[in-house]
């Protein structure tokens, strides 16, 4: 099993990467392969991630908070990825992570979680909002509660992935939903 973790920060190895690394370490400790990708909205990177998602079992979307919202980079990346590989997200396990100096994390998580919901992904929760605080990576690691939430998120994701794998091994498949009607409210 494998989880792709998207770092939607302008900084490749900054605070968001640090939070995702805590999740990735926990997933690996629980037998799940991981790959953290710096999600710059470049066509080649989006295409590579789209291809990797076909074989992946889960996705974690991480973003710093810019102006009380996710970064423009992750929004652009996810919009392009959804257009290119939205079907590859369906029924996969997903989670979101926000990193901030102070505020704006819940608004950021709300926006990111909509990508999971729209694509019928199974959302993983922790025991608190999946956010960390700090202006520098070392400060994120000092956020003991935030890092504990990241580890719990990783354990919960590993557990859910294993449950799904066990279900598939016993003949349980995801639902096949009929094509829904598309309604246009303008006549």
Describe this structure in words.
The chain has helices at residues 15-29, 43-55, 72-89, 105-118, 137-142, 144-169, and strands at residues 2-7, 33-38, 58-66, 69-70, 93-100, 122-123, 131-133. It is an alpha/beta fold. Strands 1, 2, 3, 4, 5, 6 and 7 form a 7-stranded mixed beta sheet that branches. Strand 5, helix 4 and strand 6 form a beta-alpha-beta unit. Helix 1 crosses helix 6 (144-169) and helix 2 runs parallel beside helix 3. The chain is globular.
Mean pLDDT: 96
Q: Indicate the radius of gyration in whole angstroms.
A: 16 Å
* Largest sheet, strands/sense/barrel: 7 strands, mixed
Which series of helices and strands comes N to C?
EHEHEEHEHEEHH
Global geometry:
globular
Percent helix, as a range, is 40-55%
> What structural class results from the helix and strand content?
alpha/beta
Give the tally of β-strands: 7
Low-confidence stretches: none
Q: Separation of termini? A: 47 Å
Beta-strand level of the residues, as a percent range? Answer: 15-25%
Q: How many distinct helices? A: 6
